[in-house]
Amino acid sequence: MKKFLIGTAILFIAIQFIDFDVPANLHTDANQEIKAPKEVMDILQRSCYDCHSSSMHYPWYSKVAPVSWFTKSHIQKGRTVVNFSIWESYDDEKKIKVLDHLPKAIKIRMPLNSYLWLHEEAKLSDQDRKMLSKWADELKFELE
Ligand code: HEC
């Protein structure tokens, strides 16, 4: 039993070194942030920004491996799909693609379930979904 505990402890410490680097905060130009009505910004910031912006606010345990591997992978992938902090640097084609996918994404899997377990406050209400979808459709229409 003692050996097992020591083994587990060593393993736990060892995996802390297996890590890949995803900066929690990227320095991006504030002018490039998406501009949306306050009601929409509130929802984006509350429910999406941890994975789709240049700044994330995760609790300490998400920095500990193996949880950190998932967190970082979500952030890395999420930012690649869309980083709302650099929205204005995207061309229309990219913006339209994101806006086009957004209503469906928030209906079926955004924010990710594994994230919602720890972030109850990020859950979207039906009204939030309606507001985001309407906003995305209108913005897409303007760009097309
Ligand atoms: C826990 C991290 C996380 C949060 C929070 C999150 N996303 Fe994502 N999102 C991802 C990841 C990772 C992907 C890419 C992989 C995938 O589609 O599962 C993604 C993909 C997307 C896509 C592209 C989907 C597609 O089909 O191309 C859209 C649009 C999107 N997210 C919008 C949002 C919006 C809007 C919110 C807030 C309501 C949100 N996400 C919250 C991690 C997150």
Unreliable spans are none
**Hetero compounds:** heme C
Q: N-to-C terminal Cα separation, in Å?
A: 65 Å
Order of helices and strands: HHHHHHH
Q: Strand share of the residues? A: under 5%
> In one word, what is the shape?
elongated
**What level of helicity do the residues show?**
55-70%
Rg of Cα set: 18 Å
Count of the separate structural domains: 1
**Continuous helix count:** 7
Secondary structural class: mainly alpha
How many strands appear in the DSSP assignment? Answer: 0
Q: How would you characterize this protein structure?
A:
- There is one protein chain.
- The chain is elongated.
- With 144 residues, it is mostly helical.
- The model has no long low-confidence stretch (mean pLDDT 90).
- Helix content is 57%, strand content 0%.
- Helix 2 (38-47) packs across helix 7 (126-143).
- The chain has one domain (2-143).
- It has helices at 2-15, 38-47, 49-52, 67-81, 92-108, 113-116, 126-143.
- The structure holds heme C (HEC).
- Residues 47-48, 50-52, 74, 77-78, 81-82, 98, 101-102, 105-106, 110-112, 115, 124 line the site of heme C (HEC).
